[in-house]
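Exercise: predict the structure of this protein bound to adenosine-5'-triphosphate.
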Amino acid sequence: PAKYLPELKKHWSQDGGDASYAFLTQAFILVNSTTKRIKIVDTLVNLLRILIEGAPDSLLPAVWLATNSFAPPYEPAELGLGGSVISKAFKNIYGLNAQGLKTLYNKHGDAGDVAFEAKKRQSFTLKKPKPLTIKGVYQSLVKIARSKGTGSQETKQRIVERLLQDSRSAEESRYIVRTLVQHLRIGAVKTTMLIALARAFLFSKPPDANFATKGMEALAKLKKEELTEVYLRAEEAVKASYARHPNYDDLVPCLLEIGVTDELLVRCGLTLHIPLRPMLGSITRDLSDMLTKLQGRDFACEYKYDGQRAQVHCDSNGKVSIFSRHLELMTDKYPDLVSLVPQIRGESVSSFILEGEVVAVDQETGDLQAFQILTNRAKKNVEIGSIKVNVCLFAFDLMYLNGEPLLDRSFRERRDMLRSLFTEIPKRFTWVKNLDATSADSEAVLEFFKSATDVKCEGIMVKVLDNDTKPGSGVTNSGVDDHENLEVEEEARDKRLTKKDRSTRRKALLSTYEPDRRLESWLKVKKDYSTSSDTLDLIPIAAWHGSGRKAKWWSPILLAVRNPETGLLEAVTKCMSGFTDKFYQTNKEKYSEDGENVISRPSYIDYAGHPDVWFEPQEVWEMAFADITLSPTYTAAIGLVSDERGLSLRFPRFLRVREDKSIDEASTSDFLAALWRKQMERAQEEEGAALDPSVDDNI
Ligand code: ATP
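Solution:
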């Protein structure tokens, strides 16, 4: 994008360094008008470049708004805007009555689209408002999130109404509202933004020798392959920084100051009390698939405990922070773990970041307890004295020690340090159970796998121990459908690497800790997802546009049970697992956007979310799942087991289309509720203790 996009540039306006929100809106419109990733990245690069060069103070708020957030995940900030605030604002600002509002909602589904229509219809405004600015909108969000306590609802209402009032166009209103309901619906996901930032800074603030180029002119003179190389290095630097220090409040000012250089990782890298994005495991079909992949390598098999991942940070003053898999701060949830820290860290340890799985454990027997039990623990402000669900932290990695990041050390080294410098406390803090092996030890690995599933673990994690690369340890893509896109991004990135790089990478199953990456050096082998032998026959009713490799298809797909009493189809789960690429393709052809099998939001479906497409219900799919959970989001079987919550499925997996069944024969909400009761009885028998119904809180 050496030239600016004219369709964006012509909307550029600013006042004293404050870029207008209309400009950002135009970027959203352009991004929204395409599904092509290249076009999306180009638009964002243009947006960012113009801001860097013309209104650098507006850059950071624009990045937050374009990524549909306003604070990093580990800062507990929420807008806390109920649907009623938005509806009331629609009534007050657009003069809609309840019926008018309902009609618009039924027609459009999306609150932003409702705002767009309502604004268009508005015949007059009392006075032309001052243009909204990017900074102003961002600050409004921060104010909404900060207003707490008595009178906060009124304050929030006032800010929302002021934003709607000050929107000058229907499009601005649409994106303001989408921002307020936290569903922006533009394809600018995290990775796209990081790539765009890297490229924008490469052009606007060209680095020096670090990236082997000097300025735009030099970039323009590069051959295509060389340019790709420069892009890649810049992208890798920005992504690496964000994976270790995921906060735009730190990254963007740093980029403005020094541009994209290797210095970024020093200035904005791994930091105590800021969670790094965790390394992820790749799926394998089964043990033999895993053994083939790791041929010739030494690896550690570890129990894959069914609990909650925890990243524990401790500084030299003894301050402890604990973060979840999704980087939320959960120190308050685990005061018992915090209190263990002085005992577990050895004398030579001053500061550290370690990682492990928190599992509910019977303190008498030491037996592992089901994940369901862990979900019974309150999420916040847990008092040590009132803890009923006791936990053990099974530590598996050490990423930082005494002021030094250990990410570049081999897994064997990190594990050795963890186990030699920290102290076990039985049933409270210990190491994951492991077996070190090679592909030749298949019998022992099988035994180990069985022992893991015998104690209710999900399966095993398998991790390459050393960094040495031996030829022939080929990395292949398993082709197994996973429910995350990082693997896909990995694959895409792979495609952009030079031939030489690619072959080096393929040979190298790194044993370093690679934040936010799903490499083949961490493999997961799970027992069949279907721990429940029951299956459900569900009706596919809606879907979202896929991303990454699945961008051409529908994924995830929303499924429902039927309620014969009310005639409603009640949404029960989203599914992205078990489908082959061929199936996805056929599915997309069957439910093509302008085809006859796609409908507008039907009234007989009970689901509050906003899928991108609604299917005409006509098929029944047999689905496997791990277990059934109470859910605040899904309404299936609501009123049958809980008045407020419906039921949903954990690890749903597509098995096959039931050609022999019509939708009238799909599973009912009664049947789902009966399965839930059966599951709870089974759990009670197993645990010998009564379980409170728990909420699936996605831990
Ligand atoms: P994803 O990796 O796709 O996010 P997920 O979070 O649902 O998936 P899985 O893919 O099932 O989890 O497996 C990875 C998770 O397993 C880790 O995030 C961690 O919480 C858990 N886990 C349990 N035991 C271990 C272990 N020994 N090593 C690493 N992770 C473990």
